[in-house]
Specification:
five-stranded mixed sheet; 23 helices; extended; disordered C terminus
């Protein structure tokens, strides 16, 4: 091999690589020398700027660190500003809140309005000077001096609140409040405050100060369902904002802080006290003297009495939110912003629902330690006929029927049993009610006992907890309980449940939270022969001129077949036993077929009854906003009673429909009802409308009538002179006879509220 390559060629290659290596070494050496010389020159040049001793630590180092921190801060601010500026991506942002809706009930009667209409008919110059001054003195004294964020005012508010030990003064400028009204919500989070600050600066670059103030006066919520000072002036004082006096202007300016708390039609003393604070602010700000406000102090504003006016505010809020989402689906070219909307509400049922909730809480709330309730009653097509979002809209606008997420307890079990029926089980399938554990979690029944072998119908009737858990294990098969729970969640989704429903071992017995409205309308799938529907309030949308824009039956989502009709019928048959002989006997309706399921959560924090007839579906919830436990309230107590009372009203004048799987309802005799308060004895009460007169009552009235006849005969026999002496004993005897004929007769005792 060595002879193959000539010696001359070997020598040439050797010299070539030696030369290449030398060149590379030389280049690297020369480069290093050049870089060293360059560095030395740079160091010599920079030495001219060297600052030593105290100047370095006092000037140079802080400046350097400040530059670094400032650069990082700018990057952070940019990251925080991007989400805020996304809120302004809609080119129509100025008109986005310009929606004005008049709502009608299902029969075409006006029930209220929501939204605002940008009204240029009252320019800023036409508002009374004292109204503008009262607003600025109370909300933002330096409005015309800052660029959207009032840092001195914010610092002053922080100091005042720190000294008071609580929130006494707000630090948000008028521009920040307008940004919140236009783009954000009322949630108290740091993210919202950051967005609010950036959007305030953005508004200041887009609008003039007067335009910002005009928008604020037009679009701020002022209580009573009104927006803007002009709407509030009409609502509270029956006059235009142009005509309000100083006392009325002070009362209006006081509403910006807490319109519900200081609304004069709800709490006039609080509104006047707040107006007096506004008058103090006018003097403190130097806008007026004490002499100028003296007359307003001596003669405070008098608001129109609207206590008798009833408005379904929770329902209107829900309908307006639905309408805003609906408008976003209209073509971009559609510019109409004023609508008349016919809703599904039935005001008779709505009033009955509100009165029933209030009466139950007033009568039994203290005994049960329950302070709040929510309910939704809907047609089987999903149209909401009645909604109660809380006990008092004036004290809390939070809609517990749509926005609160609460554990449904055993009222979630029908989704489990439905899944089981679609996977080979039948209502007569037998499951052993006995100990079972998934990992370290072992479910317990309500009575901490077991029933042995039971059918699915018996299990749902007695609200046994172990059986749904065992069903989830059996349905999972080789995939385990987790696979079974995934099937249950999939079924709930088909019913219309959109809540998160995270996977937990206790999901089959209702540990995952749902909303009242979703839960109520999901149950409509059973009487609908397996077809799921969408909850809605809007039936028809027209423009202010009367032109039809949208109609639910034509444009709304159509029902979907969620489960087989046979499964829905089997479930209805099983759930009817809950009402007939199970935990919901108080929900029985006379002559009306009904089915449903009670629900009670751990520590009695939530009590539910969700049920349906051939006409309606309804969910009722009782509990407390702070998640504190009730006093052993179960779904079969107040929730079932409330469901019964409201359903009786809802079915008046309605053709009663049967439910597939149950058939016609039966007329029931009077039954002993278990008392809802400890220590009380059972009372006889009829389920549904009571009979006009019992046989016992008729006999008593006959005896009383006979006693009066005897008294009349005695009076005629003895003559007029002795009539008074005879009649009084006779009447007294009649009352005594009536009392003796009625063993339970007693003077009524005061009711404990």
């Amino acid at each position: 091999m060595r002879q193959i390559v000539p010696k001359e060629l070997k020598k040439w290659f050797r010299n070539f690589f030696l030369d290449l290596d030398a060149r590379i070494d030389s280049s690297l050496f020369n480069s290093a020398v050049g870089l060293r010389e360059l560095y030395e020159r740079f160091s010599t040049f920079m030495d001219r700027f060297y600052v030593g001793r105290w100047k370095r630590w006092v000037i140079i180092e802080p400046l350097s660190e400040g530059t670094t921190i400032g650069l990082v801060g700018m990057i952070l601010m940019l990251a925080l500003a991007i989400p805020a500026f996304r809120e302004t991506s809609d080119e129509d942002w100025l008109k986005k809140s310009d929606l004005a809706v008049t709502f009608l009930d299902r029969y075409g009667n006006p029930i209220g309005s929501r939204g605002i209409k940008h009204n240029d008919s009252i320019p800023l110059e036409d508002f009374p000077d004292h109204l503008i001054k009262a607003t600025l003195a109370t909300e933002d004294r330096r409005f015309y001096d800052h660029f959207g964020i009032d840092f001195p005012g914010l610092a002053r508010a922080l100091v005042t609140n720190a000294q008071a030990g609580g929130v006494r003064q707000g630090g948000s400028s008028i521009t920040q409040q307008l940004a919140k009204n236009l783009f954000l919500n009322n949630e108290r989070t740091i993210e919202r405050k950051v967005k609010e600050a950036f959007l305030a600066i953005w508004l200041e670059t887009r609008l003039t100060k007067n335009e910002i103030l005009k928008l604020y006066l037009d679009r701020a919520y002022m209580g009573g369902g009104t927006f803007g000072v002009d709407g509030a002036a009409h609502f509270y004082f029956n006059k235009s904002a142009r005509d309000v006096n100083l006392a009325e202007a002070a009362m209006l300016a006081g509403l910006f802080k807490a319109p519900t708390r200081y609304a004069p039609h709800i709490n006039l003393p609080a509104a006047r006290a707040r107006a007096n604070v506004v008058l103090d602010n006018l003097v403190d700000a130097g806008f007026m003297t004490e002499g100028q406000v003296f007359g307003a102090r001596r003669n405070p504003a008098v608001a129109v009495d609207r206590r008798e006016e009833v408005s379904p505010n929770y329902y209107l809020d829900y309908a307006f939110d639905e309408m805003r989402k609906l408008v976003q689906t209209f073509p971009k070219s559609y510019t109409e912003r004023v609508f008349v909307v016919r809703t599904a509400i039935d005001m008779n049922v709505q009033k009955a629902a509100e009165d029933t909730v209030e009466n139950k809480l007033r009568q039994y709330g203290r005994d049960y330690h329950a302070t709040q309730s929510a309910l939704v009653l809907a047609d089987l097509d999903g149209g909401v006929r009645a909604m109660v979002g809380g006990r008092d809209y004036g004290s809390s606008q939070f809609n517990r029927a749509t926005d609160a997420m609460r554990q449904p307890g055993s009222s979630f079990k029908p989704y489990v049993y439905t899944t089981a029926l679609m996977n080979g089980f039948t209502p007569k399938s037998i499951i052993v009610d006995g100990p079972v554990c998934i990992g370290n979690w072992c479910p317990q029944n309500y009575g901490h006992s077991y029933s042995g072998a039971v059918t699915l119908t018996q299990a749902i009737t007695r609200s046994i907890n172990v059986v749904p858990v065992k069903l989830s294990i059996a349905m999972g098969g080789k995939g385990g309980p987790k696979a079974g729970r995934a099937m249950i969640v999939a079924t709930a989704r088909k019913f219309g449940i959109k809540a998160p429903l995270p996977d937990t071992p206790s999901l089959p017995i209702g540990s995952d939270e749902v909303s009242v409205i979703e839960h109520a309308v999901a149950y409509a799938t059973f009487p609908n022969k397996g077809k799921a529907v969408t909850p809605h309030a809007v039936l028809e949308v027209r423009t202010g001129a009367g032109d039809l824009v949208w109609r639910w039956d034509r444009d709304g989502p159509k029902p979907t077949q969620a489960i087989p009709a046979s499964t829905a019928a089997d479930m209805a048959g099983m759930m009817s036993h809950v009402v007939e002989e199970g935990t919901a006997r108080r929900a029985q309706l006379d002559g009306i077929p009904a089915a449903g399921k009670t629900g009670t959560t751990n520590s009695y924090r939530d009590a539910w009854f969700v049920g349906y007839t051939g006409n309606f579906t309804m969910a009722v919830w009782y509990g407390n906003d702070d998640y504190s436990p009730t006093n052993r309230m179960t779904g079969g107590s107040l929730p079932a009673q409330t469901w019964h009372d409201v359903m009786v009203v809802a079915h008046q004048g309605v053709e009663i429909k049967d439910i597939a799987g149950i058939g016609a309802g039966v007329r029931r005799p009077q039954a002993a009802i278990i008392p809802t308060t400890p220590g009380a004895r059972p009372v006889s009460a009829s389920i549904g409308p009571p009979p006009i007169l019992t046989r016992k009552g008729a006999n008593i009235l006959v005896r009383v009538e006979k006693l009066f006849e005897d008294a009349s005969k005695a009076e005629a026999a003895t003559g007029k002179s002795s009539s008074n002496e005879t009649t009084k004993p006779a009447l007294s005897n009649a009352v005594e006879s009536f009392a003796s004929a009625t063993p339970d007769f007693a003077a009524p005792s005061p009711r404990k509220n």
